[in-house]
Amino acid sequence: MRREFWLSSLFGVLLGLCMALGAVGCLATAFELTVLDPQKLLLICLAGLCLCALMCRWRWGDLVLLVAVGAALGYLLRREEFLTQLRQLIFRISYIYDLAYGWGAVSWPGMTWDAGAADLPLLVLALLLGMSVCRSVCRGKPVMVPLMLALLPLAACLVVTDTVPGWQSLCLLLFAGVMLLLTGSVREDSPEQANRLTMMGVIPVAAALAVLFLAAPQDGYVNKTEDIRQSLRDWLQPLSQELEAGTGEGRLELTTPQPEEVDLSSLGSRDVSRKPQMYVTAQTGGSLYLRGMDYDVYDGTGWQSTGTRAETFACSGTDLGYVAVETLEQQKQMYLPYYPAEGVMLVGGRAENTGLYTQYTFRRTGLPENYGALLVEGTAEHTPDPAWLELPQGTLAGAAEWVQGLEEEHTASGKAQRVGALVREAGTYTLDPQRMPPEAEDFALWFLEEAREGYCVHFATAAVVLLRAAGVEARYVTGYMVRLNGGETVAVTEENAHAWAEYYEPLLDAWLVLDATPASLGATETVPEETTEPADLPQETTQPPEEETQQTTPAAPESREKGNSLWKWLLALVLTWMAAEGQRRVRLGLRRSWTRRGSPNRQGLKRWRQVRTLAALLDETPPAELRELALKAKFSQHTLTGEELLALDAYLRTGVRRLRQHPWYRRLLYRYGYALY
Q1: Do 609 and 641 reside in the same domain of the chain?
Q2: Phi, psi values for residue 115, rounded to 5°
Q3: Per the structure, how many domains does the chain have?
Q4: Do 175 and 249 fall into the same domain?
Q5: Dihedral (C-alpha) 520, 526, 528, 531: value to the nearest 10 degrees?
Q6: Are 571 and 505 in a shared domain?
Q7: Reported pTM
């Protein structure tokens, strides 16, 4: 018996350690939490589990552990370091959820994304979870409570698609959970058999998990939803076209189409709506360009996009935090900030929204800190791509006169600065320009030489044409431009729709923004107050001015509507209660059905298991007469009568009534954790 106790203690410590490290690791890797001293956390957790296993030998050990845990929590709650780390943990998790669902982040003054480590809160979580597992194993208690506790960190990672836990942590968590499920019911009746089953199951369970992770690696299943949605869209789109052609009835629209060409010849007055198109939240404030689509082919009267081209859109530089986008309708493309940290593949000039997402988040980077020195001192061997320089012959001849003298500029950014100044000085901004006359052959030259007025489309087209004429690879881009504060959520309307030029800078190996629209705009278009020139490029294309570049996130991002965050948190609480109540009712129904199946003796043994659990919760020994009934049902030829089964039921009913007299927090545990009533 002594040997079995020590084996149970050993397995309790090991399984508790696996469960604790797995759960904490899932949170740390999914939410990118900083752990300064993981070795220290591991040693403290191991020492706490060993102490828990020793206390399980003593009848009053649970009380001692409860007092010790309460005293430790009280001590930690009085330490400012623990409170700061706990606030940081809550803020970081709620901020990710806010980016995904717009619920509002829980924050405190001065809280930022990279405020510090989360060692102490994670240590407390690891100890509580590991000790609950250790106690269940050492004392032969039901394992549902520690399993449900372990599922909470895992569920927190799985609700948001961007928070993927590390495979090592996930493997540890699953291993401990499977071992508990395999041995939990056996351990309640026979610790010796449970220990033997644990030793026999370690290798098969570990091998099965290894095969599972090798057969379905994370890279293979993270994006499965995109493939499924794309297949569904491909299947439904022909049906939509058939419905439209065959019946003339309502058409099934899965996406809001983005035109693949821009007709400049019919461009006239611009009427805009203030109806929101999307909501955007950026961790770093300032001017934010959201890139929708670029066009590479210019024929004099319009822009077209070659659908077969593909490239990676990225730039390595300073970390500017997260940018979250929520569109009100499904869009064919995703809107990209400058620049996605991990790079995004552009196909046909846009980032395909194959998953039909309406909510997505990008980690954003700016230009390198030494970009100025690179532009002045750097050299790069680069052969321009003719596709980005192509212009009609008449356009090239006319534009060449505008860019005379730019040969003295030795960098693409230097030429872009001069071109931006030329275009801004050539025209004035208006939302009611004249249309291109039929006799005009080229839109850009007509705008520069005759019309001399227009809005962003006019200035961006002229800038791209002059850049190409000057030998700088360039393209026309459409999207949105907003100005916002760090952590603020703003509504993006048609007023923010914008067009600009992109040019390729070989010294940075990146496409940079050239916004040639004049700074003094009308009321319905927003662009930076300062022109986008290479000398000011970080401030206007990727980084805001110095007073705005501090990555300070406000106490909580503003909700789209007043009080929006509060009711969503209340709704989350209501849904949580409904889930808890639902699982309680399901478990009660399953237990009643389970105890009434089989022969009378089997029904009696099932009731006896519940009697033992109830007696343990009441801290008393089951009645001797009920124990004799269980022995009689298991080892004798006697068949239990209805009266004998009723005796077991009577103890269960009276025991539940006595449990309801315990303190409220224990009643909650009995009701939702054990589902006893």
Answers
A1: yes
A2: -70, -25
A3: 4
A4: no
A5: -50
A6: no
A7: 0.45
